[in-house]
């Protein structure tokens, strides 16, 4: 299978779709990976629902099940809305339990109920079980298909068990076999390599390794990803409150979680929404962004109120207004830098409670150093331009504002984390707006004090 180049083949594909050349299209699809087919549906026919539905109808149930899991947002909605419940049922039957539950959760309630009636009882019960777990938790991510042996089995008995499982069940990509006791409690795992190389008479409990990590069904997906990254796990066992093994989360789901959480944090940094990339409606995208912009608007109104209270100082020294953009921009930059470091450390699990305190103090020291340096530079520039007195006013104000911005930029995410609120919401418009308000106030308060003290005019 050669690597697919959508740009090079786009014209040919469009022509074949226009001609409804089923034979040629099936031949091309037969040579492509499911991800490439999904790319064709998402990019080449992004706004053409009829064409997307036609192409999807050419896929057999197995390929369709792989393609549909590569689709997101409105592209998935377009496909699902134009296929019959029987077709969806055939697709769901090809999927592992976690993927099947994800797909059913995207369906309208009436269609979902119909699909759950049509699939086998085993599949239906598995999907219903997974749908009971809260979204974005380990329980909602896990697959119920697991490979496990008991600790008192011999290696030979375990190998026979695995052969039986491989013939009766469709379980993909298992690298570790989980080990449970007679009560189904997780006690360890054994790799395929250890299983093959050990003597057949060896007991599993003598060859197994105690589990490095596991998660309960209620654990948030971000924490699951952090644990997997910390211990370099390709899959992670999921247990209930009694530590009984109930499922596993595989490496592909872990990769999806990492990408999803990163996209979410980046979006919050800019005051947008991670889902809007899949949204084709301008009105819907506007609705996602507008709340953050309104927060910024309200904040800047308060900035205007701050300015109005220092009108006498501004009238005496008009040159103060020249440097307001400098003060506001430097405050915003310092705040974003400090908050971004804290948020990244929290998101990756690098900062514990002790580390956060140390990092908080470090951010204040960094703000102090940078504030003194930048303040000294601006003093020199204004000394040449307007005179030393005004230079001292602006330089001292800039240093104070940068220290304050670093303080709040580090403090706000830490405070939110303490109250179990995602620190990413503290960035972007929130930090920038708050720094504008307090930065202007501090700048003009300093200016008023120095004007009165030094008699600057």
Strand-pairing-aware structural class: mainly alpha
How much helicity do the residues have? 55-70%
CATH topology of the largest domain: Tetracycline Repressor, domain 2
**Would you state the CATH class of the largest domain?**
Mainly Alpha
Q: Proportion of β residues?
A: 5-15%
Q: Catalogue the unreliable spans.
A: none
Radius of gyration: 30 Å
Number of helices: 22
- Integer tally of domains: 3
Kindly report the average pLDDT value: 83
How is this structure best described in words?
With 457 residues, the chain is mainly alpha-helical. The chain has three domains: 6-136, MgtE N-terminal domain-like (MgtE N-terminal fold, Alpha Horseshoe), CATH 1.25.60; 148-264, CBS-domain (Roll), CATH 3.10.580.10; 274-454, SLC41 divalent cation transporters, integral membrane domain (Tetracycline Repressor, domain 2), CATH 1.10.357.20. Helix content is 67%, strand content 6%. It is built from 22 helices and six strands. The chain has helices spanning 6-19, 22-30, 34-44, 49-57, 61-68, 73-81, 85-94, 97-105, 109-118, 121-131, 138-141, 155-168, 192-197, 204-207, 221-231, 251-269, 282-308, 311-316, 324-348, 353-385, 388-418, 429-454; strands spanning 148-150, 176-180, 186-191, 215-216, 235-239, 245-250. It has a three-stranded mixed beta sheet. Strands 4-5-6 form a three-stranded mixed beta sheet. Strand 5 and strand 6 (245-250) form a beta hairpin. Helix 7 (85-94) packs antiparallel against helix 8. The longest helix has 33 residues, at 353-385. It is globular, with a radius of gyration of 30 Å.
């Amino acid at each position: 299978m050669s690597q697919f180049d959508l740009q090079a083949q786009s014209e040919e594909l469009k022509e074949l779709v226009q001609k409804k050349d089923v034979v040629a299209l099936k031949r091309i699809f037969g040579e492509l990976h499911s991800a490439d087919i999904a790319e064709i549906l998402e990019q080449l026919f992004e706004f053409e629902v009829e064409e997307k539905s036609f192409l999807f109808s050419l896929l057999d149930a197995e390929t369709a099940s792989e393609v549909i899991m590569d689709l997101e947002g409105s592209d998935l909605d377009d496909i699902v809305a134009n296929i019959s419940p029987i077709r969806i049922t055939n697709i769901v039957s090809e999927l592992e339990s976690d993927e099947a539950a994800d797909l059913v959760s995207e369906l309208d309630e009436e269609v979902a109920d119909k699909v759950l009636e049509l699939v086998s009882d085993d599949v239906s019960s598995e999907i219903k079980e997974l749908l009971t777990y809260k979204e974005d938790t380990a329980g909602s991510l896990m697959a119920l298909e697991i490979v496990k042996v008991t600790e008192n089995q011999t290696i030979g008995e375990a190998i026979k068990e695995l052969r039986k499982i491989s013939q009766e069940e469709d379980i993909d990509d298992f690298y570790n076999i989980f080990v449970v006791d007679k009560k189904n409690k997780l006690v360890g795992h054994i790799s395929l390599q250890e299983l093959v190389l050990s003597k057949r008479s060896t007991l599993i409990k003598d060859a197994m390794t105690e589990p490095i990590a596991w998660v309960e069904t209620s654990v948030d997906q971000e924490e699951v990803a952090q644990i997997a990254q910390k211990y370099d796990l390709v899959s992670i066992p999921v247990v209930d409150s009694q530590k009984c093994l109930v499922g596993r989360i595989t490496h592909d789901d872990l990769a999806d979680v990492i990408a999803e959480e990163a996209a979410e944090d980046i979006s919050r940094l800019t005051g947008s929404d991670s889902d809007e990339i899949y949204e084709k409606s301008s009105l819907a995208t506007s609705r996602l962004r507008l709340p953050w912009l309104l927060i910024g608007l309200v904040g800047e109104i308060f900035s205007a109120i701050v300015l109005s209270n220092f009108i006498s100082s501004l009238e005496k020294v008009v040159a103060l207004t020249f440097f307001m953009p400098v003060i506001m921009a430097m405050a915003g930059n310092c705040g974003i830098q400090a908050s971004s470091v804290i948020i990244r450390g929290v998101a990756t699990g690098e900062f514990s409670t002790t580390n956060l305190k140390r990092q908080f103090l470090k951010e204040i020291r960094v703000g102090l150093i940078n504030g003194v340096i930048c303040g000294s530079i601006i003093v020199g520039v204004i000394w040449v331009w307007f005179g030393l007195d005004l230079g001292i006013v602006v330089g001292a104000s800039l240093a104070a504002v940068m220290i304050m911005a670093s303080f709040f930029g580090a403090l706000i995410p830490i405070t939110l984390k303490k109250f179990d609120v995602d620190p990413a919401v503290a960035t972007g418009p929130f930090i920038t707006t708050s720094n504008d308000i307090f930065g202007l106030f501090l700048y003009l308060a300093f200016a008023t004090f120095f004007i009165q003290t030094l008699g600057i005019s």
